[in-house]
């Protein structure tokens, strides 16, 4: 049963508007950290809602751009926190990607702020299809073009992030970081990449 709406999801994820224009350390930790504290907070507040959405009980959110974004954050972001380390962390990626594809086709993303659009496009960035990766690069370049000069550096950092994901898919055709959770056997090249990745983190 739903216990919250998409407004609660967006409020948690984006905080205050002025905070997300230049993300604070706290906001960056929520967005990109892998700490137990953030995982537990999201589990406590949103596991029930995520499970309801997985069962299709939040499909009415799809009618608005912000509702679509709420679903994308549930499926593409919160899922990774709630189910971290298991294959279920990625089980909702196709649903998130479908919302993103359909929404972009209809121009729904244009009804969101630039920082909201960053996460609207994350299903493309998380996809293991090179066509989606190419589309993500195009989307993030567009955000840079639309951004004010004083905030362009922020969107440039997201494009660099997208380029990193693109390069991994271009090289391996998948994200080796997911192999363990998805019970996939790593190639020798992937094992070397994972060792290097581990040393850097």
Give a structural overview.
With 201 residues, the chain is mainly α. The chain has a single domain (6-200), classed as Serine Threonine Protein Phosphatase 5, Tetratricopeptide repeat (Alpha Horseshoe). Helix content is 68%, strand content 0%. It has eleven helices and no strands. It has helices spanning 6-14, 17-21, 25-32, 36-54, 65-82, 93-106, 114-120, 122-126, 130-146, 152-172, 188-200. The longest helix has 21 residues, at 152-172. It is globular and about 45 Å long. 30% of the residues are buried. The mean pLDDT is 93.
Key phrases:
Serine Threonine Protein Phosphatase 5, Tetratricopeptide repeat; 201 residues
Instruction: Name the CATH homologous superfamily.
Output: Tetratricopeptide repeat domain
**Which percent range fits the helix content?**
55-70%
Shape: globular
**Run of helices and strands:** HHHHHHHHHHH
Total count of domains: 1
CATH domain class name: Mainly Alpha
Query: Largest sheet, described in full?
Result: none
The fraction of residues in strands falls at: under 5%
Q: How many whole angstroms does the radius of gyration measure?
A: 17 Å
At the fold tier of CATH, the topology name is Serine Threonine Protein Phosphatase 5, Tetratricopeptide repeat
End-to-end distance: 38 Å
Mind sketching the topology for me?
Layout (H helix, E strand, L loop, with lengths): L5 H9 L2 H5 L3 H8 L3 H19 L10 H18 L10 H14 L7 H7 L1 H5 L3 H17 L5 H21 L15 H13 L1
Helix pairs in contact: 1-5, 4-5, 5-6, 5-7, 9-10
Quick gist of this model?
By secondary structure, this protein is mainly alpha-helical. It contains eleven helices and no strands.
């Amino acid at each position: 049963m739903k216990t919250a709406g998409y407004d609660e999801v967006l409020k948690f994820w984006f905080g205050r508007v002025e905070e997300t224009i230049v993300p604070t350390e706290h906001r960056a930790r929520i967005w990109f950290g892998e700490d137990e504290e953030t995982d537990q907070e999201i589990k406590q507040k949103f596991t029930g809602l995520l499970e309801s959405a997985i069962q299709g009980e939040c499909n009415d959110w799809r009618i608005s751009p912000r509702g679509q974004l709420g679903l994308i954050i549930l499926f593409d972001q919160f899922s990774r926190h709630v189910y971290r380390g298991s294959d279920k962390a990625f089980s909702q990626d196709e649903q998130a990607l479908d919302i993103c594809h359909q929404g972009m086709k209809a121009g729904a993303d244009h009804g969101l702020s630039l920082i909201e659009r960053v996460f609207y496009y994350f299903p493309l960035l998380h996809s293991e299809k090179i066509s989606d990766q190419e589309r993500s690069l195009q989307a993030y370049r567009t955000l840079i073009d639309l951004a004010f000069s004083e905030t362009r550096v922020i969107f440039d950092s997201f494009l660099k992030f997208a380029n990193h994901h693109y390069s991994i898919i271009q090289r391996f055709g998948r994200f080796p970081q997911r192999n363990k959770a998805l019970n996939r056997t790593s190639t020798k090249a992937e094992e070397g990449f994972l060792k290097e990745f581990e040393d850097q983190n």
